[in-house]
Amino acid sequence: MRSLSLLLIALSLPVWAVESTVPSGTPETHAEGPAAPMVDHAELTAEQVLEQLPKSSAIQLQTGKLWWDDGHGARIGIALVACGQGNPSLDTAIGDLPIDRKLLADGRTDVISRLPALIATAKAAGLKADGFTVREGILTGIHLRSEPQIVIPEGVLTKTDTPAVKRVAERETLGTAVQGAVAALADTKLDDLGRKCVEDVLKRLDSEDGKQAVDEVAPSFARRLVRFGYLDQFFGDHGKAVALIAAINASNVFKPVMRFAGKTAAGKPLLLAEVKNAFDLGGWILVTPERSSYTRMLPEPLYHWSMQPMNLVVDLPAGADPTTFPDAGVVPTGARLFRNGQQVAGWTKASGFTADKALWRDAVPDDRRKQGVDKNATTNFMPPHIVIAGFDGDLAGIATTGGWLAAPAGTPTDSDRFLREAAAQLPDAAHLDLIGEYILSYTYDSPDSRFPLLIGNKQIKGDIHQTAAQTLSTATGGVVHGDCDDLAELYQTIAEKQGRTAIVLALPSHAANSWAEKQDDGKWHVFVLQTGPALEFVDAELPKALELAYKSFGASETFDPNGLGLLLRFSGENTRSSWRLSWRIFAEPDYAKTMIEVQKDWHFQTYQRGIKTMQDLLARGDTDTANYRELSGLYGFTGQYAEAADFHAKAVALTKEPESRFFMQIELLGHLFDAGSTDPARIEQAKALAKDLLEVQFPQVKAKLGPAAWSAG
């Protein structure tokens, strides 16, 4: 039954088609659906037949005859035979030809102009209407179908015997090759931890996807890594590695398991086939002299957990091989998405992207009240798009309303191209999120600095913050890899190219990219892009919107709008370092540049330059709490303790929020005690402040602090 239902998807998705619940990559429906009711083929009057037909202005009764008319000069007669609620028949040169009732009900008059060529092809082949039905398939388009034959404009396809293809031997060969490569790890320069990391990837090669967490290497991704040379850095041309690559390539060949073949009138071959590799991944291909297309299930996003299965159809240039796509230099000419036989979205290289928004949101909900959608998901979460991938998951690119974004190729020149095109085509947080959903595969950093491209795992990992260029250089089969800080910097780089002031947030055991916009509703919208769903937080006041964002990653964390945690990189250092700056950096680009320059002075220990910058800022009248606080810190670090205490006291005096004021006074204690080394009066001031904090202020703010109260020390 499985092969028949697969054929139904490839050829014709009738109105009763049931959606697939099988893993992505296997286009399958549950069942054929109910059989059409038996009909009496006794000839009736036109009026009697009209009563049994779907209501349509395109069906016309003229002088005792029924016509299906497209309104543009083309029409075809409707046979005067009973159909009940089943399929009506058309009066054609090959006899009374049944047509899928849904085509008439949906007003698909475009079919009328396509039928003459199909009927002429059938007639030339000596075929009669008996056993055929006019149907529409997501891959074949309008065609005539019987159990053993399919008529398409190019010719007649006949079901042929397909030799039983058993891939067990290929899997066994791969398993043996994996064992050989694991044993050969001893011949590499990897240390014990490095060998364990590579072994973890190798032992996944002979498995199937579906049982891994988001932060684990999926078997299909492990095979992609090896196919694109991941092992070269460890093994070189070691014989065991060469054998492993050969075994993977053999198991990844897509071979027919069902086929329909034929020839055009000129004798050129036609092929419609279901193809699979040794891991049961695959779909259907259609190859004719004029077209080359394939269908598979739409790849699943990483962080949208209620997206419904949809069928992807991709059109390639004539002559391209669908089983090896994506190939270098082959750009798809078009793509379509279908759900329950209805086209949800479409894209062509010539005409761009279109989508039915209602059908899209039925399949890809963005309602925050629905299961699988984060309560803080960004507006228009998972916007209409088509991600185009080959049968083995290699990514070709993503089509959106912004255009066609080809997947990264991993070269320096292409990295520049990708960043430029992503900035132009993905205009908002919801669209940028598609990069994290499809283009980046989550992996842990290398534990061995000698091999920065080594992939770690949950148990064995290092911490390397890749630049955007470094992350894009990891592309294998269109998919890059990295962890949260790598994706955050990639997002930041693209957002900055769009003119945004993008910040990498320092969050509990996490990093994310963020920016803020004051929109037409008069409110501040803070967007967070991460290895997770794209998020949006809204409030009339920017500090409050930022608080919502930060606390969504840890309600117990202390939030100080004048000391937001962020991660900065100044001169290509291996990891970003943690800093704290005012909420104003999200609203004022020039202020952000100035304050980040001061953090650079901290980093390079040019403290006097930073002090001078802050003094000038205050002298110009920018007496913000955060500015006094920053200057206080610089004074304290350079041993100017009295100045540090004085400027921190000014910062406290300007702080209105009771919770922030409380924590800032705890910081002031340290400055007072330091200043007390030369001024005993400061010690007494510190003692008095400590008593007030413990006995008066802490009881007042404890309830508001909630879980963060423990951090008061």
Structure keywords:
713 residues; alpha+beta; elongated; 35% helix
In short:
The chain has 713 residues and is an alpha+beta fold. 35% of the residues lie in helices and 21% in strands.
Question: How would you portray this structure in words?
Answer:
- This protein has 713 residues and is α+β, with helices and mostly antiparallel strands.
- Helix content is 35%, strand content 21%.
- The protein contains 21 helices and 28 strands.
- The strands form 6 sheets. Strands 6-7-8-9-10-11-12-13-14-15-16-17 form a 12-stranded antiparallel β-sheet, with helices on both faces.
- A hairpin with a 3-residue loop joins β16 and β17.
- α18 runs antiparallel to α19.
- The protein is elongated.
The residue-averaged pLDDT reads 91
- Sheet/helix structural class: alpha+beta
| Count of separate DSSP helical elements | 21
Largest sheet: 12 strands, antiparallel
Helix content: 25-40%
Contiguous low-pLDDT stretches (5 residues minimum) are 1-9, 12-41
Query: What does the overall shape look like?
Result: elongated
Strand content: 15-25%
What Rg is obtained from the alpha carbons, in whole angstroms?
33 Å
The tally of strands reads: 28
State the end-to-end distance.
Answer: 67 Å
The order of strands across the largest sheet is 6-7-8-9-10-11-12-13-14-15-16-17
List the helices and strands and how they pair.
Blueprint: H1 2-11, H2 46-52, E1 59-62, E2 65-69, E3 75-78, E4 89-92, E5 95-98, H3 101-105, H4 110-124, E6 133-137, E7 141-145, E8 149-152, E9 155-160, H5 168-184, H6 192-202, H7 219-227, H8 232-235, H9 239-251, E10 255-263, E11 269-276, E12 282-287, E13 292-297, E14 311-316, E15 334-339, E16 342-348, E17 352-355, H10 357-363, E18 386-389, E19 395-400, E20 403-406, H11 412-425, H12 429-439, E21 440-442, H13 468-473, E22 480-482, H14 484-497, E23 503-507, E24 510-518, E25 524-530, E26 532-539, H15 542-551, E27 564-568, E28 577-581, H16 589-604, H17 607-619, H18 625-637, H19 641-654, H20 658-675, H21 680-705
Parallel strand pairs: 21-22
Antiparallel strand pairs: 1-2, 2-3, 3-4, 4-5, 6-7, 7-8, 8-9, 9-10, 10-11, 11-12, 12-13, 13-14, 14-15, 15-16, 16-17, 18-19, 19-20, 23-24, 24-25, 25-26, 27-28
Helix pairs in contact: 5-9, 11-14, 16-17, 17-18, 18-19, 19-20, 20-21
